[in-house]
User: Fold this.
Amino acid sequence: MSGLFSFPNPVNEYAARAAAGLVVVLAVVTIVAGQWWLYAALAIGFALRVAGGPRYSPFGRLSVHVIAPKLGPAKLVPGPPKRFAQTIGLVFSTVALVLYLTGSHVAAQVVLGLLVVAALLESAAGVCLGCIAFGFLQRRGVIPASVCEACAGVNTTPPTLTVPQ
Assistant:
């Protein structure tokens, strides 16, 4: 049963960046269109990625199987910080959905705007704000080093993992 909700470790950074790019597109469309079901789709997508990485998520599957292979050989990074980042995205998208459903449309747009900034940084520049937060919390002992031993002591984004040839 635990295998159903496992997150890959390591993760192909190019696939994560591609998924973030797709999130940017959907979030911008959601802000412009202002439809509750788009807010819900965004939150559900994050929930699916948190639950099983790319396994259950259409954006994840598209990123891993179609987009990332066209970007070159996999660049592997630890999975736990990426799952943490997806969880933050789930929180932001769920808050935006709740705000929208309760009539606070501008607040919902602002929250999604923050999500767009974070996803755009990940997609375009490879700067994962959730991964940075993960590292900060791990260095402070909030997240045990055992959660991601490869990340222990890392100052910014997760390190690239080497794969034996």
Observations:
- Helices lie at 13-33, 36-52, 58-70, 79-101, 105-125, 129-139.
- The radius of gyration is 16 Å.
- Residues 79-101 form the longest helix (23 residues).
